[in-house]
Design a protein that fits this description.
The protein has 327 residues and is an alpha+beta fold. It has 6 helices and 23 strands. 20% of the residues lie in helices and 33% in strands. The protein binds zinc ion.
């Protein structure tokens, strides 16, 4: 089993290729987060806020020599061009990881006649070779091809697992079960306050414990939410909340230590919030639950902390949210 060092291509203002309503930088980050989530400690995710090409980060990178670097990209070209492939340093022989990745891509994202290509003109390929690191760059299909994008989005988990399998990393136990949902109205005895920032409305008044933040039936996107844990902390001083929001055109953004004035999402940018993941610690025996009202779909069930409520990859706005702390 290898240890994987994962670089998401582009970023830091560079969208990479654009097509079919998506940017390469956002899509490869979404894939990178999924690989990291399923691969756990065997995967080290390189700082996704950085552009690893422009900052030449590999030149100053120090990782054990037996780790393997994988850089994620998507191709662009004529709208009919499709299929994924693996790029390695020109003159090198493909190793078992390259071959396994090529096999997986041929099954899931077919179209290229040469599944493994040697290149001498790519900066990160050369930088990694100069440092003696095992490295390959994978183009996960063409973002300019509608069908490749459809495959990428709908089979994201399979691709993420295929990557991990290619490096001998097992995912079976790490794969999260279906989100835990609680029917009806869970018992709760805490005062969790939260408020939504909505399209054309701005910040709405705070609500609490299962009340609706945002709007239902007005087709207004929810753009941001603030969650106030201060009442919870009166009972559980160690209560700590972290959050991840999937934001239109940006992708996943993490908020490590959410305070009452932490803006989860964006304000003034006209961007919809698409999904949220919350994680509450320091409250023994209880979890945080989020229910989202999605454009076109309506209410989801209550989703337990640590799982995604909302959608990724289908451009659907969260319009309202209910939160509660419960058993
Ligand atoms: Zn690229």
């Amino acid at each position: 089993m290898a240890r994987l060092f994962l670089i998401a291509g582009h970023g830091a203002g560079d969208s990479g290729a654009v097509g079919n309503g998506y940017t390469e930088a956002e899509r490869v980050r979404t894939l990178a987060y999924r690989i990291k989530k399923l691969g756990g400690d065997y995967v080290t995710l390189a700082d996704t806020s950085k552009n690893w090409y422009k900052t030449a980060g590999i030149n100053t990178l120090t990782i054990p020599k037996d780790w393997q670097i994988l850089e994620l990209h998507m191709d662009s070209g004529a709208s009919s061009a499709h299929g994924g492939h693996v790029i390695i340093k020109q003159g090198y022989t493909a190793d078992k990881y390259d071959n396994a990745l090529a096999k997986m891509l041929k099954e899931i994202l077919p179209g290229r006649s040469n599944m493994i290509v040697g290149r001498g003109d790519l900066a990160n390929v050369n930088r990694a070779a100069a440092k003696g690191y095992g490295y390959r760059l994978v183009e996960f299909g063409f973002i300019s091809n509608a069908n490749d994008v459809k495959i990428f989005n709908s089979r994201l988990d399979e691709i993420a697992k295929g990557v991990l399998k290619s490096f001998g990393i097992s995912v079976a136990e790490d794969e999260p079960p279906l989100p835990k949902q609680i029917p009806g109205n869970p018992v709760n005895d805490m005062l969790l306050y939260y408020r939504a920032h909505c399209q054309g409305v701005g910040w709405l008044d705070p609500v609490r414990d299962g009340q609706v933040a945002g709007t239902v039936g007005f087709s207004k996107r929810l753009e941001a939410i603030m969650i106030d844990l201060r009442k919870v902390r009166e009972k559980y001083p160690d209560a700590k909340l972290s959050a991840k929001a999937h934001i239109q055109g940006i992708g996943w953004v993490s908020y490590d230590n959410v305070e009452h004035d932490t803006v989860i999402g964006t304000v003034g940018q006209g961007k919809r919030l698409e999904a949220i993941e919350l994680e509450l610690t320091g409250v023994p025996g209880k979890n945080i639950y989020a229910q989202t009202h999605l454009a076109k779909f309506g209410w989801t069930g209550y989703i337990a902390g640590g799982y995604t409520s909302g959608t990724v990859g289908i451009k659907t706005a969260v319009e309202a949210m209910r939160l509660k702390v419960a058993q």
